[in-house]
Amino acid sequence: MEIVVDSHTHTIASGHAYSTIIENALASKNKGLKLLCTTDHAPEMPGAPHYWHFNNQRILPRFLHDVGILRGVEANTLNVEGQLDLPPSSYQHLDWVIASFHEPVFTPSTEEVHTRALINVIRNGQVDVLGHLGNPNYPFDIEAVLKCAKEHNVAIEVNNTSLTGKSRKGSDVRCSRIVELGKEIGVYFTTGSDAHFCEEIARLDLAKTLLSQHEIDESKILTTSTTRFLNFLLLRGKPRIEEFSHLY
């Protein structure tokens, strides 16, 4: 399985990451990626940038070191209503929106609360993918959430960092169950390194192994093809990115 898109990466703007977008793009080129999603943490995460950081991504070149740059965010789920920590004005400037639970922003609660929050995030229509769902601090009704994601064309991330045991310990078993049920339900998957340093860009070996173990068809793995990934954005109602016309 070849992965040509890293759908979840961070720069120094996130406050606890250590590389610039230029360094991340160069690492992407050296590792054979075609597209890079830059997805810094949204404002409610401690140390994260002001929302202007996201609104101003329109100034970023569409290519850095010959790698296509997708302007994104890892937004925080704020509450059970599924609200995110970006103002409405931000979304027009973003190609790719991840929504994730983070302990400093959303205090872990019950399975019922987490399930309601995720379903409301999906239904609110602003989110393209749910990030690192395997976190054992946030149990949820996997079947209900994945069925809702399937209905609304929201992708499910397989987060490589979650599988390393260094972050969100205990995610591996839950991630496996999510992928297993996701295959049955027919959701779309993405693979994100969750890189916080440029050397971690495209480090997706554990995510690839998990998807292969469950024999997920590549047509359901958005990051295996620029055409697949960009057409998913069109499916989500995003405008066509003309600079990427040769990648559709």
Automatic annotation (TrEMBL):
InterPro entries: Phosphatase_YcdX_put, PHP_phosphatase, Pol/His_phosphatase_N, Pol/histidinol_Pase-like. Binds 3 Zn(2+) ions per subunit. Residues 5-79 form the Polymerase/histidinol phosphatase N-terminal domain. The keyword Acyltransferase does not apply. Zn(2+) 1 binds at residues 8, 10, 74, 194. The keyword Cell cycle does not apply. Its cofactor is Zn(2+). Zn(2+) 2 binds at residues 16, 41, 196. Keywords: Hydrolase, Metal-binding, Zinc. Zn(2+) 3 binds at residues 74, 102, 132. Belongs to the PHP family. This is Phosphatase. It comes from Vibrio breoganii. The lineage of its organism: Bacteria, Pseudomonadati, Pseudomonadota, Gammaproteobacteria, Vibrionales.
